[in-house]
Structures are given as structure tokens and as C-alpha cells.
Write a structure and sequence with these properties.
By secondary structure, the chain is an alpha/beta fold. The protein folds into 2 domains: about 180 residues, Quinone Oxidoreductase, Chain A, domain 1 (Alpha-Beta Complex); about 130 residues, Rossmann fold (3-Layer(aba) Sandwich), CATH 3.40.50. It is built from 11 helices and 17 strands. Strands 3, 4, 5, 8, 9, 16 and 17 form a 7-stranded mixed β-sheet that branches. α4 packs across α10. The longest helix is centred in the middle third of the chain and has 12 residues. The radius of gyration is 20 Å and the shape is globular.
């Protein structure tokens, strides 16, 4: 079978390697689709702080069961599935208390350990989640980023009936907005500096979209929600500007959730954070329950994934996919790699 290997930043090879055989407790997955993540782009540019080369990438995935290892039950050959890419120790305090997304020894497929970018991938059956037969492989490959959004939304507790502001209209920001609406939020406002991205957010159900390059955030915030402002602000852009907007304008005693990863050290106003008794929380990846909720939201028609797919590339055009993203950053949302049709 063919396996993708990034040997150095910007350099990808395809190697002919033996098809793995599932060991006891494992399943063999025929990989069909892989989504390209912003973190993958960081690896491509040599900017990911926790990835060494060579590395096989791929962590947003859909496929079907090709074979079952000894002792595996609950799956059938041909079943449509996705894979949760966390590799955890199972022994540290977070793992022992059900928070394995915070494992002290956390590794992620495609970054610190081998990713799924190959024709077949053998994996622990516990990391495999069934997908509904009616769900497309494209949608299945986007359950991972949607699970990120679901976990982030839930960090604020029950959002039913609440007013939500999402800063950043990239794929995760739009998925956070959709997940919040799907989980019962009353009104969702999305901000960005790109009209193209905001149009996509509106297409996916955002109630109000604001270009903060053209409009004053503080005024738009109150105009949207009234003097009581929003109950929760999600920072899905991850920079000093957006976090500054959140802290300066949040209703006293309300909640800010940092979803995005800051590319540099944050410079935030802790005095205002303290004085306004703001709850600044964070979100890290997901757990199995977030995958299940993500699948259910799509199944119920509460989240649209297909409008976020910008382009498809053949497996051996992986490098072209990265080049396309670099050349079309403002207009590109999600690129899908067709590993096998």
C-alpha cells in the first residue's frame, strides 16, 4: 500500500509499505478521506513546535472497516467509521479521571505519532467510532473538527437559550457557531475581518455576522445582544486583538472560552479580567462523548458540513493541496484528500 511521509517541511514522499495486519484488539481501516487541518499546515511550513520529521500525517479521517483483529466485537467489515487520533497513557491523573484529552503523555496521530495518511491503517478498536451509513465520507472526515467545536461549546456548560459570540470565522469558528446553535443557543454572532468567511458563516446559520475591520466591535456587540451583551464569548481566532476585544467588552461575570491556539504569547489585560470577575476558560481537543454528539448534530441536520468543503485533491496530490491552501488562504475553508474512492 502507499503511505504519505513528510520527510521535511514542504517535502512529501509516497512509500510502498506492507499493508498492516490488525493485532488483537485492533481493526484495520481502509482510509477513504482525510481532512487537512490548520495544524497540518504548520507542519508543512516547519512551524509546529511538537512535530519532528519524518512524519506521516492525517488525523481528520473517514473510512471503512477492512478487517477485525482477534477479540474485537461490535464492528463489521465494510462498516463506515472515523478514528479518534489521541494516543494516551491511561495512567496519569487526567486519564484516570476520564479527561484523557489532557493526558500528561498525550500524542496525536499525524504529529507525535504515525497518522492515517495511507491506504490502510491498523488502530486500537477503542479509538474507532461508527458513522451512520447515510453520512458521506466527506462529512465523516469532518467529525473530528466538529468534535473540537462541540467540546469547546460544552466548556461553558448548557448553552440552551444563551446568547453566544464567536470571534473568528475559520472552519472551527463556524463549527463552534453551528454547534452552539445546534445545542440550543438563542442567538449567535460571528466576527471576522474577511467578508468571504463571514458569508460562509451566514450560510451555515449564524444570526449576525460582523466584519470588525469595517465595524466597531463594541458597538456591534451591544447592537446585536443589547446592554446585557452575550452570555459566552468563544475566541476562535487566538490573537491579542480578539482576546482583547473579548475581555474589554464581555459582560461582567460572564464567560470567555479560548478555543484557538495562540501562535505567540498572549498579552491580555488581567486587571480587567479580575475586576470584571470574568471566567476565562479553555478547550483542548475532545473526548468520545463529543464525537457522538457531533455525529448526532449532523444526523439531525443541525450542523452543515458540506458548505465548508472548499476543494478535493487526490492522495498523491497531497503537496498540491497544501500549495492550494497557501495560495487561497482567505477563500479556503476545508480541503479534503481523496485517499481512495
Amino acid at each position: 500500500m502507499l503511505q504519505q511521509v513528510m520527510t521535511a517541511p514542504g517535502t512529501i514522499e509516497f512509500r510502498e509499505v506492507p499493508t498492516p495486519q490488525p493485532q488483537p484488539g485492533e481493526v484495520l481501516v481502509k482510509i477513504v478521506k482525510i481532512g487537512v487541518c490548520g495544524s497540518d499546515i504548520h507542519v508543512y511550513h516547519g512551524e509546529h513546535p511538537f512535530t519532528k520529521y519524518p512524519i506521516t500525517q492525517g488525523h481528520e479521517v473517514s473510512g471503512e472497516i477492512a478487517a477485525l483483529g482477534e477479540g474485537v466485537t461490535g464492528f463489521t467489515v465494510g462498516q463506515k467509521v472515523t478514528i479518534q487520533p489521541q494516543v494516551v497513557c491511561g495512567k496519569c491523573w487526567p486519564c484516570r479521571h476520564g479527561k484523557y484529552n489532557l493526558c500528561e503523555e498525550l500524542k496525536v496521530m499525524g504529529f507525535q505519532t504515525t497518522g492515517v495518511a495511507s491506504h490502510y491503517f491498523a488502530v486500537d478498536a477503542k479509538k474507532v467510532t461508527p458513522l451512520p451509513e447515510g453520512m458521506s465520507f466527506d462529512e465523516g472526515a469532518m467529525i473530528e473538527p466538529l468534535a473540537v467545536a462541540v467540546h469547546a461549546v460544552r466548556q461553558a456548560g448548557d448553552v440552551a437559550g444563551k446568547d453566544i459570540c464567536v470571534l473568528g470565522a475559520g472552519p472551527i469558528g463556524i463549527l463552534v457557531a453551528q454547534a452552539a446553535k445546534g445545542l440550543g443557543a438563542r442567538k449567535v454572532m460571528v466576527t471576522d475581518v474577511s467578508d468571504i468567511r463571514l458569508e460562509k458563516a451566514k450560510e451555515c446559520g449564524a444570526d449576525v455576522c460582523v466584519n470588525t475591520r469595517k465595524e466597531d466591535f463594541a458597538q456591534a456587540f451591544v447592537q446585536c445582544f443589547g446592554p446585557d451583551k452575550a452570555d459566552v464569548i468563544y475566541d476562535c481566532a487566538g490573537n491579542n486583538v480578539t482576546m482583547g476585544q473579548a475581555i474589554a467588552n464581555a459582560r461582567k461575570g460572564s464567560t470567555i472560552i479560548l478555543v484557538a491556539v495562540f501562535a505567540t504569547r498572549g498579552d491580555i489585560d488581567l486587571a480587567v479580567l479580575n475586576d470584571h470577575e470574568l471566567d476565562l476558560n479553555t478547550s483542548m481537543m475532545y473526548r468520545n462523548e463529543d464525537y457522538l454528539a457531533a455525529i448526532e448534530l449532523v444526523n439531525q441536520g443541525k450542523v452543515q458540513l458540506k458548505p465548508l468543503i472548499s476543494e478535493h485533491f487526490a492522495f498523491q496530490d497531497y503537496l498540491k493541496a497544501y500549495q492550494y491552501i497557501d495560495e487561497n488562504r482567505e477563500t479556503t475553508m476545508k480541503v479534503i484528500i481523496n485517499v481512495q474512492e
